[in-house]
Fold this protein.
Amino acid sequence: MSKAGSSASETEVTWEDQQNINKFGRLNNRLHEVEDEIKIAKETNESLEDAGNELILTDEDIVRFQIGEVFAHVPKEEVESRIEEMTEKTSKNLVKLEEEKESIVAQMAALKKILYGKFKDSINLEED
Amino acid sequence: MSTSGGLTDRRGIPAAAFVEDVQIYLSQLNLDVNSALAILQERLQQYRVVEMKLLAQQRDLQAKIPDIEKCLDVVATLQSKKGTGEDLIADFEVSEGIYSRARIEEAESVCLWLGANVMLDYSCEEATVLLQKNLENAKASLEVLVADLQFLRDQVTITQVTIARVYNWDVHQRRLQQAAATPSES
């Protein structure tokens, strides 16, 4: 994302402007990280759902459940409750991430307004 | 150098000085535009090198943390089997694609790999404490690292903006000079 202008404008850059620009950069970086984390959380949720479905279909009493690097033989009910626990944890995390994303997007919109307001064409805050 | 904001260096990363006025900045440094731009570009490069290093460290830590959590999970599972008298049966990978079954009897202790070809025996409780401590240290290191990266990226942004402003100032000066050198004929 480019932040520098191409026109030779007279507008002076104050320390406050610089700090706004810095903050925008930080928010943008964090936004990308959060979006990646959201993607992973969604995939994890899907995997857990698939596992849960498989569990319902199987008629075995002992399921091989991965703990660490090995597959331990665990009774079906315990696996069910473990998967439920993991699903809840991932879902909560997903909600938290979505909320963070919303907050970041709002902050970035506010900063854009301020910076475009002062610098107009001299600054570019869009994703290339 | 006209600066403001009072940014101090952070753990070996030099702070980028914020320039209040380009003209004063250049005259204080006694540099022409091209030299100033060259110096700023070099600074930017140095920042990029440090950024690469920090990003690599961050990736390592981010991989280490789930590993430690997995270990904690295993120790907890072994501990939970302790009172029951049951053996833990587990399928493990002998080689890629080849698995074998293991019967793990009541676990008095576990061995923890400490690195540098050293493995030590610990009771389950001690192992949990040690792993927990490692996990907290890793998370704390990651936090510091992330803060370092944020600071670094701020300095990169400041330097990029300074480069743009010096360049623009130069373009502006040339335009003024041209306008003065070629007066319009009335």
User: Anything to note?
Assistant: The interface with chain A takes residues 4-5, 18, 20-21, 70-71, 73-74, 77, 88-93, 99, 102, 150, 153-154, 157-158, 160-161, 163-165, 168-169, 171-172, 175 of chain B (CB under 8 Å). The beta strands of chain B are 88-95, 98-104, 109-115, 118-123. The CA atoms of residues 23 and 159 of chain B lie 16 Å apart.
